[in-house]
Amino acid sequence: MTTTLKALPDYGPRQFGDRLGFSEWQFERARRLDLIPAADLGGRWSADVFNDVVARLDAVRAAVGTVPDVGSGRAEEYLAEKFDGLTVHPGTAAELARRGHLPRRGEYKGHTLYCGLTLERFTDRRKVARASAAGRTYTRDDAAAVLGLRPADFDHLLRAGLLTHSETTVSAWYKDITVRLYRQADLDRVLRSSRIDWDAVGATPKGRQSPLTQLPTHAG
Fold first, then answer.
1. How much is the pTM?
2. What is the DSSP string of the chain?
3. Which residues fall within 8 angstroms of residue 163, CB to CB, at 6 or more apart?
4. Are 180 and 168 in contact (CB under 8 A)?
């Protein structure tokens, strides 16, 4: 038995989206892309506008895409599946956004959302690989290990303003604790810094004060 929806004289946002078979994110993206025009009846849409959208519904669906705006984890999982065999590290989505390749689309519960339509249409494997390498993030202790430092010596880099965190996340164990994350490209930059004698730092035996303690404190 086939059920036919009765035509309405006008449509609110929920009625409009539901009758197109659109989820909320699809309807909002269609509006953002001007595939659905602005409401013409004081916050509601006339039947004429609705029927016009229905007449070109296949084209609207194609333009809206199938991937909603997602957080960094889901964005990186999507890219790893899309580019099979490519390692996509945590921090890749933020790095792609930083480089202007992946627009941010607001937040959800304090977490940045990234444009699903851009993810769906992304074709440049090299850009993802470069973002994965440069944007990979580490916790404080892991970042210290990458630099070959003791965690306490790592803190001297922060104190001197030679390094700062690129983003934050919530502790996997304690949801009220914010964890600072450090980016691979920033660690690489510090390793190239002429202000640090890395040979001397590496030669400092255990129990001896690190040369990093002599770095001046950043005024800012």
1. 0.85
2. ----PPP-SEE-HHHHHHHHT--HHHHHHHHHTTSSPPPSSSSSEEHHHHHHHHHTHHHHHHHH-S---B-HHHHHHHHHHHSTT----TTHHHHHHHTTSS-EEEEETTEEEE-HHHHHH---HHHHHHHHHHH-EE-HHHHHHHHT--HHHHHHHHHTTS---SEEEE-SS-TT-EEEEEEHHHHHHHHT-TT--HHHHHHPPTTSPPGGGGSPPP--
3. 157, 182, 186, 187, 190
4. yes
Residue in the structure block whose two tokens are 């916790």: 139
Whole-angstrom distance, CA of residue 210 vs CA of residue 220? 23
Burial of 61 (0-12, 13-18, 19+ CB in 10 A): middle
Pairing outcome for strands 10-11 and 111-114 = unpaired
Per DSSP bridges, beta strands 167-170 and 137-138 are unpaired
Separation CA 90–CA 133 (nearest Å): 10
Contact 20, 54 (CB under 8 A): yes
Q: Per residue in 77-98, pLDDT tens?
A: 999 999 999 999 999 999 999 9
User: What digits encode the pLDDT tens for the residues 188-213?
Assistant: 999 999 889 999 998 888 878 889 99
Do residues 115 and 103 touch, judged by C-beta distance below 8 A? Answer: yes
CA neighbor of 136 nearest in space, from 76, 183, 192? 183
The rounded distance, in Å, linking the Cα atoms of 172 and 158 is 24
Which token pair is 208? 């001896």
